[in-house]
Automatic annotation (TrEMBL):
Protein name as it appears in the record: Uncharacterized protein
Source organism (scientific name): Vitis vinifera
UniProt cross-references to Gene3D superfamilies, sorted A to Z: Glycogen Phosphorylase B
SUPFAM superfamilies: UDP-Glycosyltransferase/glycogen phosphorylase
Length: 123
């Protein structure tokens, strides 16, 4: 179906109205991350979701931040809770936000890469 390899980890909820931006959740959050995505190269942004059901341990979060900081990879990371501290740990190559419209982000042309589209951690 796709001309690229996808490695989903976790689950995604189908959303059939990707063009509909009238949802309350979308309207109530800052959508600056879409503007940021619009300025990135095609397939150059790694999408990372730290999960909304299970929390990621502090040690795993620090490991992820260290990898992102030294990797040179652009990223959009969704993390509930301590987003300010995670932003500081991850460096300047990406964004850390408390929420995003996941399927719209995954459909954005800048999200992707040679081997993976997104990572969802449930540790």
């Amino acid at each position: 179906m796709f001309s690229f390899l996808i490695h989903p980890i976790g689950h995604a909820i189908p959303y059939f109205n990707l063009g509909d931006s009238s949802s309350t959740a979308t309207a109530s959050h800052d959508l600056n991350y879409f503007r940021w995505l619009d300025f990135q190269l095609s397939s150059s942004v790694l999408y990372i979701s730290l999960g909304s059901i299970l929390s990621v341990s502090r040690a795993r979060t620090k490991e992820l931040a260290a990898v992102l900081r030294v990797s040179g990879v652009r990223f959009l990371c969704v993390a509930l809770g301590e987003t300010t501290q995670l932003r500081e740990m991850c460096g300047e190559m990406g964004l850390v936000v408390p929420w995003c419209d996941q399927l719209k982000v995954l459909s954005h042309s800048s999200v992707g890469g040679p081997d993976a589209l997104w990572v969802e951690l449930h540790c």
